[in-house]
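Protein: NUDIX hydrolase-like domain superfamily
Species: Arabidopsis thaliana x Arabidopsis arenosa
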Amino acid sequence: MFLLYRRLPSFARTTTTTLLCKSMEPAITATSSSSFGGGSSRLAALAQQLRQYKPPPSSSFDDSEEMQTDQETAGKVVSQVGFQESIAPLSKDPDRFKPKRAAVLICLFEGDDGDLRVILTKRSSKLSTHSGEVSLPGGKAEEDDKDDGMTATREAEEEIGLDPSLVDVVTSLEPFLSKHLLRVIPVIGILRDKNKFNPIPNPGEVEAVFDAPLEMFLKDENRRSEEREWMGEKYLIHYFDYRTGDKDYMIWGLTAGILIRAASVTYERPPAFIEQCPKFKYPKMVEKHTCMP
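Structure follows.
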């Protein structure tokens, strides 16, 4: 297994019943890798497959839905769903609820055993939010970012030293809404040559860089869930336990939700467990297809 781990020197949708697909590989057809800049034919075919994926188009609420939703309810949703800690209630001023944009990079590469793997980080324990948690490289969009792909790859370079020229951005997934009012766009990119990437964690943000098999987020193994309820709607938060070398990691919440979706799109099959996302009513400033894990 190609391991990216490195220590620092000092320091939502409705309930879905799913079935396990017999195939253990993404449903892709091999094509020439000549247009993929040196990647394997399998990665070239995967890139071609993922480029054809398009997230649902944006749509607005109709008047009846807008009438049913108020800012106080919205505050409860954002403060409770998918997270163990809460934030202060939101103001009824609609402009204060409008989420800021962010992007994360789901960087896939081919492991030594031929499996698809994704690059993950363990956040620094010194950070004020989500310290010590596993996450995907990414962050808030800046004015100079031309698109979400640029945001995701720029942040990955700043956090773990991943040169954007090594990554082919192939598609974006549906947005997720984070607890801190960030509208997070998951961007899928493919690392053509894993040997050219030498992780350099930013000491202020990242404690460790490692990788995990993408398919694990479709399997009902080393997974547990916690059921919660909001306004009569029950939903699940998923936790994946992962061990690499002598290190144990827990991947959960927003990161787990994004990776479940990314794996489903990549392997073109649903997970082998019930996701059970609630039917939330979103404020009119948030698009309906935004997922809240």
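Remarks: The chain has a mean pLDDT of 75.
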